[in-house]
Every structure is written in structure tokens, then in C-alpha cells.
Amino acid sequence: MSERIEGHGGELALAALRAAGVREMFTLSGGHVFPLYDAAHKTGFPIYDVRHEQSAVFAAEAVAKLRRSPGLAVLTAGPGVTNGISGLTSALFNASPVMVIGGRAPAMRWGSGSLQELDHVPLVAPVTKHASTVFNTGEIPNAVRAALTAALTPHRGPVFLDLPLEIVFSSDEADAPTAPDVPVIEPDPDDVARAAQLIAEAQHPVIIAGSDVYASDAVAALREAAETLRVPVIANGMGRGALPPTHPLAFAKARRAALRGADVVVVIGTPLDFRLGFGDFGAAQVVHIVDAPSQRATHVQPVVSPAGDLRLILSALADYTGVRADHEDWIADLRTAEDAGKARDAQEMAADTDPIKPARVYGELRRVLAPDAVTIGDGGDFVSYAGRYLEPSVPGSWLDPGPYGCLGTGMGYAMGARVTYPDRQICVLMGDGAAGFSLMDVESLVRQQLPVVIVVGNNGIWGLEKHPMQAMYGYDVAADLQPGLRYDDVVRAMGGAGETVSKAADLGEALERAFSAGVPYLVNVLTDPADAYPRSSNLA
């Protein structure tokens, strides 16, 4: 006979969440979800609260990304849930196993006009893997487990449950919950063998490794495959750092040369979307390796597309024993291009001009960031430079909005990252436009003693819109912000610290003060509005 547990709806839900490895809750207080708070408070389960629900979902997503396990956001009914929809959508695009539990107006009075009475499920269903309402208190543990199984099954993604008021406040008993049973998707061995042969026999192969390599815990398998087959690797998204920058097969600056000269492009764990030219690599053959059949591209036709557990696929590539071409001249050519690119970058990152060039900001950051620092991008123009100039040294240390491109992730991601890594540097790279979305949640960081460093590239414009609009029309509208705005004063007013930097020579010392402060600290860098990044699609 299975063990039984008893309690109110919040206690039953929390028991199932704990069984799945959930370690904390991100929320904004609301009466519809009080029983979840009660269960957490009575058992010492950490609660982190925010000033806007989107930050709670983004914090849960950061945890899900970094730990490769479920992150939890608890939102009150109505506007609490709708405020979290952008976070859910980002999690869907990023394949992040986020669980949102929403409060819900009482089912027994449905249709009578209760406070915040709204059927959330039709709104969130298009941006989740699973969305449902639980109408029986005793069914809550099973419902949580089923939702989390869906969230963790490749291709991963967010899930949603809402609990009517009388259901979550009532008590019942249920079987003791167990951890989700996540299936392993076995790849077709013929597809894997065909992919291995193409890669091994190619004259100029290149691998593009994306976020799912990290999410699938396949970093070691990627390294083994690349080293065994001797294939250059370009990493995107959370794949960055899978091979450290010093690895002889790691390339970042030779991307254009690699893709122009490749005869086989192997894209692993990322979609063939706008960030990769929609999968058009000229005459090169394309191998698209994905974690589930649903992720195979439908707008282009790769030569082969193995689908399944990425560790199994990459390990099988490493075990290939057939004929192999010699790739050493190809690797050497790319290393020449890589070294030339690094030399150009070094010159740009040393620019001693005022107004400050964004490249100089990243040059100074490279000096103070620890190898395991978590860097978070929240912005357009300013963060585009981060993708070019920062090279993570370890996997799982880079967080950006991903292909949905949603601004406002910054403070939520920072909270989730700080909770996950209490002893690492956490650095948020934020455009001044993005600062308008979530900067108020610095108060949440201050109040809960979660120090992070925020570097704002303040050029007083929407850079990715103003310059293109000027080029297209000869004018721009709705593209200006207040120049020189003191975002550091905002942070100080909320109990943090900060300063404004207008001279390139002052950047280094300002960043050193920020990382030693022990409180949320904002470095407000006045950057050159004329120096805009030429494209917006490098975040992958």
C-alpha cells in the first residue's frame, strides 16, 4: 500500500513540487494563493517575492535554465496570471521547464462575478506545454506531477495549473507524490550513423552548439564528439562555454568564415531560425540534431536530422569508426581568422573615446568578471555587443532573452541566478530601454539581500530602432529616451548603490567598486548614441 499524505491544497501541491526537486518559490503576494505560502512558511521552503509578476516568472526561468530542473512561480488570479504571460512565452521559446501555479476565482461561484474571475487556461494554453485547472483537492499532487513530467520531457517547456479558491483552501488526502518519470527519447540509429558519416567525411565541417546542449546535460558528450571527429565548434545561447575559449576547437570570431567555407554545417540543440539565417548555409549540407522529433525544421530540408537524447546522439558520433577526412588545414585556416578577429576586438575594446564606446565597456568587464560569473543580457543594442565581446568560460553561465526577444528579463533572471549561485558574480547587462521594464525589482533584490551588479549602457535612444528608421525614412519617431538619465539614483533610492560613468578612463574602477559592494549596484555608463550595433540577431 502506497504512503498517504494529508493537508490543504497548498500542502499537497508543495509536497509534489518538493518531490520533483523544486527548491524555492517566486511570487507576488495574492490572497488566492495563500495556502501555498502557508505550506512553504511552515516547512521552511524559501519564498522570494517581486514587484511585478513577470519578474517572478523570469526568476523561475533563470533557475530552470541554470539548474536544468523545474523553476516555480506562484501567481494570484486574473492580472497576476496575465502579467506572467510574457515570461511563460519566453520560457516556451527557450525550452525552459517553468511551472506557474495560478490562483483562480471560486468554481462554486463561477459566472457570478467574483474578484478577478477569469478563465486563464485558454490564454496560457498556446504558450505552454500543458495548461489545466484542478477541480479536486485530492488530485493536486497527481496534477502537479503530470504537469512537471510534461515540462521536463524533451522538448522541454513551461506548464500551468490553476487552483480554484475553494480547492486550494480545502483539505484532503492523496498518495504521497513521487518524482516525475521523464522518458528518454531514443534516436534512430540510422539517422545517427548517417550524420556521423557526413561529418567525418566532410572536408570543412563546423558544429553550431545551442542551448539544448546545456539543457540536456550533453556538454561533455559534445566535447568528446568534437575532439574525436576534429570539428570546429561555434556555440550559441547557453551552449556558450561548452568548449572554453582556450580550447583549440572553440571559435567565436571566425563564425562568418566558418559558415562561408563549410561543406557540412551541424546544428545541435537550437532551431534553424532567424539567428541562423533560417538554416540557409549556401551550398553546405545541413545536419540538424534535435532533442525531440517536434523540433525538426519544416521550412528547410536537412540532409539528416537525428532526434532524441542529445547525450546518446553525441556519444554515438564520438564512437564513429568509419573513414574520416583530415580537418587540420581547415581548423588552422579558421584559427587564423579567429586570431585576426580577436585582434580587431581587442583594439575596439580599448577605445579611449568619450562618449564611451560600448565595446570599451565590455573590454573593462572582461578584466573584472570571474571565469564562472553569470552574465545576463536584457536589452537590444547594448546587449548585442555582449554577444560579440564576452566569451563565457564555463557552460551555463550566459542568460539572454532568447529568440522571443522579450525585454524585462533582467531583474528576474538576476534574482534566479543569485538564488542559484550565492557565491558567484552575477552581472546584468542592460540597455537603458530595458531598464524601464524591470528596474523597480531592484527593491526586491535589496530587501531580500540578493546583491548583483547591473551595468546600464545608457545612450538615450532605442538604438536598434532609431538608426534603422533613419536609414529607411530619413527620420525617426518614438525612438528617443531621456539622455543621461540617472538610473543609478533610482537604485540608490531603493537602498542599493551606484554611480554614473561618463569617461572611459573611469570605467575600470567603477566596475571594481560595483563587484565589491555586496549590495545591488548599478553602473550607469553614458555610451555613444551614434555607435549602434549593426544587427539585432546575434543573440542565440
From TrEMBL:
The keyword 4Fe-4S does not apply. Keywords: Thiamine pyrophosphate. Residues 9-121 form the Thiamine pyrophosphate enzyme N-terminal TPP-binding domain. Its cofactor is thiamine diphosphate. It holds the Pfam family TPP_enzyme_M. It comes from Asanoa hainanensis. The lineage of its organism: Bacteria, Bacillati, Actinomycetota, Actinomycetes, Micromonosporales. The keyword Kinase does not apply. This is Acetolactate synthase-1/2/3 large subunit. Residues 378-525 form the Thiamine pyrophosphate enzyme TPP-binding domain. GO terms for cellular component: acetolactate synthase complex. GO terms for molecular function: acetolactate synthase activity; flavin adenine dinucleotide binding; magnesium ion binding; thiamine pyrophosphate binding. InterPro entries: DHS-like_NAD/FAD-binding_dom (IPR029035), THDP-binding (IPR029061), Thiamin_PyroP_enz_cen_dom (IPR012000), Thiamin_PyroP_enz_TPP-bd_dom (IPR012001), TPP_enz (IPR045229), TPP_enzyme_TPP-bd (IPR011766). Residues 192-317 form the Thiamine pyrophosphate enzyme central domain. GO terms for biological process: isoleucine biosynthetic process; L-valine biosynthetic process. Belongs to the TPP enzyme family. It comes from the Bacteria.
